[in-house]
Specification:
This protein is α+β, with helices and mostly antiparallel strands. The chain is built from 13 helices and 18 strands.
């Protein structure tokens, strides 16, 4: 495929950039029209690549793009999943370039050429690789599989509409494997394939004290401050060993065997390089586990945002009426997101002192999943990536969540295969998101070879 990439590289950039320029931010209602515009552009790209049919399908939320190419009704079918929605670009002042005007330029740290834009990696750049690998196989007469594409527009907000749409369209989504590129590799030195991902429970907490903001001189020291109370409650959510201090939180966590931990430990990891990249002096996490285990095989709880009171310029001597926080709990397979959310809500209300009122609103949730590394799909992906990278990929566990994949696995009865080509340096969800060109092209080559070996 290298020659095909060389011959069509400029066209590839132009087509991908037409997707990246569309600010398809699912979290913001004002971008609703952009969601439809991006979906229509994806439909056009699928048809241009050679899909028999492609359509923009309505859901209760943002539309799904669904495309099909049938080579032989008796052949195996690959269902390609991706998402065209992206994270908000804020804080805008942290970007070196316009977040929705893609450019190709050097990485300041390494000098390597990369695409810089929101969505360059997550997930427009990665789903685009599948369209181009499919196009190459079809035009070169090498496509032996039926291929179906499902691109959604709500992954970044928890895919609230997709499970119902999948269930309603179960028959036409029938396939043998779900092929996904929406994850990262552990290292650019040794490739890896995710054999599982964590689930998620995401909640918002509101702590209310007095019925209005108060003068901090007239009432300070006599009335509980909701911000202080919220911080005190949050401080109790971990014990001295870094474990989540919520009753029942670990009840369904399966401890990995020594052999499984050793297999996952094959992944390369340089602690000093890790700390230098993050500009931290030390790591911190659950006692008894390595950094990679803490982000892959163990659950965790983190505060994602906290606010209250006056935060503008200058002074305003106010004792606030309310304080707020957003928390995410990343869950491992066997932990049920709904049950964890219930346990957390019950615990927080149980520890709430009588001088405040506490409300917890569930925002997003979904379960994690595992796939067998002995499957022929995993082995085909491993063989393909070894041919491209010259090194056999190691199995890994993804620390993030694509909750809808667990739903699709359950509804359709088929396993997802996560061939992700992003790297941590791509800073997805943060300012200056980018995607190295060499990973962009290596992904296309690996995906094309997957079809050859599967």
């Amino acid at each position: 495929m290298k020659k095909y990439i060389e011959q069509n590289g400029e066209r590839f950039y132009a087509e991908l950039f037409s997707l990246l320029r569309t600010p398809s931010v699912s979290a913001k209602p004002e971008h609703k029209n952009d969601m439809y515009a991006c979906a229509e552009r994806l439909k056009a790209l699928l048809l241009e690549a050679g899909a028999d049919t492609a359509e923009v399908c309505p859901t209760s939320g943002n539309p799904v793009v669904f495309g099909v190419k049938t080579v032989d009704p008796k052949a195996r079918t690959v269902l390609v999943y991706g998402h065209y929605d992206v994270q908000p670009a804020e804080p805008l002042e942290k970007w070196r370039t316009d977040p929705f005007e893609p450019v190709i330029g050097p990485d300041p740290a390494t000098g390597e050429e990369a695409i810089w834009c929101r969505g360059a990696n997550d997930d427009k750049g990665q789903l685009f690789m599948h369209i181009k690998a499919f196009e190459y196989l079809l035009r070169e007469g090498k496509l032996r599989h039926n291929v179906k594409f499902i691109f959604e527009g709500e992954e970044e907000i928890g895919s609230p509409s997709l499970p119902a749409w999948v269930a309603a369209n179960k028959e036409k989504l029938a396939a043998d494997v779900i092929l996904v590129s929406d994850t990262t590799m552990i290292s650019d030195k040794v490739p890896s394939i995710n054999c599982g991902m964590r689930g998620l429970s995401y909640v918002e907490i509101t702590v209310t004290g007095p019925n209005k903001d108060l003068h901090s001189g007239h009432y300070g020291g006599a009335v509980a401050n909701p911000i202080t109370t919220l911080c005190e409650m949050i401080a109790t959510l971990h014990d001295a060993d870094g474990r989540v201090n919520v009753p029942g939180f670990y009840d369904d966590v399966v401890e990995l065997s020594a052999a499984d931990r050793a297999n996952l430990a094959r992944a390369p990891f340089d602690m000093e390089e890790y700390k230098q990249f993050l500009d931290i002096a030390e790591v911190k996490g659950e006692k008894g586990y390595t950094t990679l285990e803490r982000t892959g095989i163990r659950p965790c709880l983190d505060v994602c945002g906290i606010w209250g009171g006056y935060t503008g310029p200058g002074a305003k001597t106010v004792l606030p009426s309310t304080a707020h926080a957003k928390l995410s709990m990343r869950l491992v397979p066997n932990q049920d997101s709904a049950r964890i959310t219930e346990q957390f809500v019950a615990h927080l209300k149980a520890i709430a002192p009588p001088y405040v009122k506490v409300a917890v609103t569930p925002c997003e949730g979904g379960n994690g999943f595992l796939i067998p590394i002995s499957s022929d799909a995993f082995q085909a992906a491993s063989k393909a990536m070894k041919e491209v990278y010259g090194v056999e990929p190691v199995p890994s566990r993804g620390g993030g969540s694509i909750a809808v994949l667990a739903d699709m696995q359950r509804i359709l009865g088929i396993d997802p295969l996560l061939m992700g080509f992003g790297l941590e340096r791509d800073t997805i969800h943060s300012p200056n998101e980018s995607y190295l060109l060499r990973q962009f092209f290596a992904g296309m080559e690996s995906i094309a070879l997957f079809y050859q070996y599967y």
